[in-house]
Task: inverse folding
């Protein structure tokens, strides 16, 4: 990996200064900003090291022998958790100059020391259940709690171990637990939890009982153990293979071939910007897919070979719709599926299609039936 000198970095940043669209009285720096974290408290440049897991999961640190000092930790993937330790409890630590939860410094020091194979002291909160603080903002959840708390009060939502944490017989897709909020961290594991879906009450434990009726939550140590193993799906491994959880090295950018385009809504809910909300657990991005599609070449060939008349009787579709499918024009996806189902029934012998070529007698019979219907309608209108 090529390395640029500090003087070279300053020159590259200065070349972007002319592209600054802002008023120089207010924004005088280049749009390619050199972060202040690169300088120490006296303003002198310092040599920073970095440990990066993905694009947003990284920490900058200094190392002097076996001493590691975390300078700029990132809380992506950790910030939604309730702090397992208050800031005033971390005595002897340097003052914090970033907007991240203070406990993330100790978490990153634990992770970096493990990767550097250095001696480390486990944080005192690794055994605590991983909790996310949410706000009681819906009448439905308030009813499940039998109004034992007030609206807009804080609640805890414990993170459940996805491997062995669920009680026996529950629907994992709908199983969401909430518990009373308390700052007494020693009481977190003994808090009674209520399932939002049906109001059932469960107990938390670090091991299942004989009936497998308890809930095993994730601990902060469990979260930190899995934290470095996150695959970067937008990148490739150094050898060009797909990036996996244990890929290491300088990643390559993956080539993307654009296919069918469709609109995707905002990935986060607006309510998250104003506080913790229970919807964060069940958030799904809205996808705006077109309701119409185009039949592939094989299906169009089958439609042309089968004949429009035969398909009209087999699918109850109009002639114009079938001609649009045959011509490669856009039709409803359900219409394509109806045609595919009709071919499947024909191939399996469930339904028998008449030949697409009609005899003269059949043509005259169709014409006579049409004329009779037309005359009947005409006589009825005359009456």
Result:
């Amino acid at each position: 990996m090529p390395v640029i000198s500090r003087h070279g970095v300053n020159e590259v940043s200065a070349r972007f200064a002319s592209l600054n669209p802002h008023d120089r009285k207010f924004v005088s720096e280049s749009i390619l900003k050199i972060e202040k974290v690169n300088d120490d408290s006296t303003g002198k440049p310092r040599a920073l090291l970095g440990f990066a897991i993905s694009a947003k999961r990284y920490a900058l640190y200094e190392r002097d022998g076996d001493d590691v000092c975390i300078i700029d930790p990132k809380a992506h993937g950790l910030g939604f958790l309730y702090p397992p330790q208050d800031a005033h409890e971390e005595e002897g630590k340097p003052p914090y100059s970033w907007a991240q939860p203070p406990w993330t410094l100790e978490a990153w020091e634990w992770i970096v020391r493990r990767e550097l194979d250095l001696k480390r002291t486990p944080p005192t909160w690794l055994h605590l259940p991983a909790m996310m603080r949410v706000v009681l903002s819906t009448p439905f959840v308030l009813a499940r709690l039998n109004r034992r708390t007030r609206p807009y009060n804080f609640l805890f939502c414990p993170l459940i171990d996805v491997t062995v944490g669920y009680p026996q017989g529950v629907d994992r897709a709908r199983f969401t637990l909430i518990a009373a909020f308390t700052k007494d961290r020693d009481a977190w594991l003994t808090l009674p939890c209520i399932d939002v879906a049906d109001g059932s009450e469960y107990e938390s434990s670090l091991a299942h009982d004989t009936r497998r009726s308890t809930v095993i939550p994730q601990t902060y140590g469990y979260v930190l153990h899995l934290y470095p193993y996150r695959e970067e799906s937008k990148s490739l491994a150094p050898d060009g293979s797909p990036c996996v959880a244990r890929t290491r090295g300088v990643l390559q950018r993956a080539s993307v071939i654009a296919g069918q385009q469709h609109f995707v809504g905002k990935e986060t809910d607006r309510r998250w910007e104003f506080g913790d909300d229970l919807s964060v657990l069940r958030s799904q991005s809205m996808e705006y897919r077109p309701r119409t599609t185009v039949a592939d070449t094989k299906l169009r060939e089958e439609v042309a070979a089968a004949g429009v008349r035969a398909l009209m009787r087999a699918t109850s579709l109009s002639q114009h719709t079938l001609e649009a499918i045959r011509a490669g024009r856009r039709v409803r996806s359900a219409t394509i599926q109806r045609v595919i189902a009709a071919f499947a029934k024909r191939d399996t012998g469930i339904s028998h299609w008449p030949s697409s070529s009609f005899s003269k007698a059949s043509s005259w019979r169709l014409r006579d039936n049409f004329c009779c219907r037309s005359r009947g309608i005409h006589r009825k209108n005359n009456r």
About this structure: The chain has nine helices and 14 strands.
